[in-house]
């Protein structure tokens, strides 16, 4: 599964995370550093499984916990219609 932002969503990385701007609504969504790393990994072509591995390695947590976090992130981004299905 490839993760892609909708064409009218702008992703800007910051020192302490990132911001997504939905140009349709004018709403901003702030992501923490963990979610930013996960989203960047997937936008760069990594699978959700790979993003979970990256998080587990970087933050010394279980792959299970990281996978649950990835599922939550993707679910929320889809619900907000920020990513394509």
Automatic annotation (TrEMBL):
Entries under InterPro entries matching the protein: PQQD, PqqD_sf
Pfam families given in the database record: PqqD
Protein name as it appears in the record: Coenzyme PQQ synthesis protein D (PqqD)
């Amino acid at each position: 599964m490839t993760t892609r932002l909708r064409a009218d969503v702008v992703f800007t990385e910051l020192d302490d995370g990132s911001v997504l701007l939905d140009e349709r609504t004018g709403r901003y969504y702030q992501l923490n550093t963990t979610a930013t790393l996960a989203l960047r990994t997937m936008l760069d072509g990594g699978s959700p499984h790979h993003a979970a591995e990256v998080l587990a390695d970087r933050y010394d947590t279980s792959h299970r916990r990281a996978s649950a976090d990835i599922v939550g992130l993707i679910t929320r981004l889809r619900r907000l219609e920020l990513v394509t299905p």
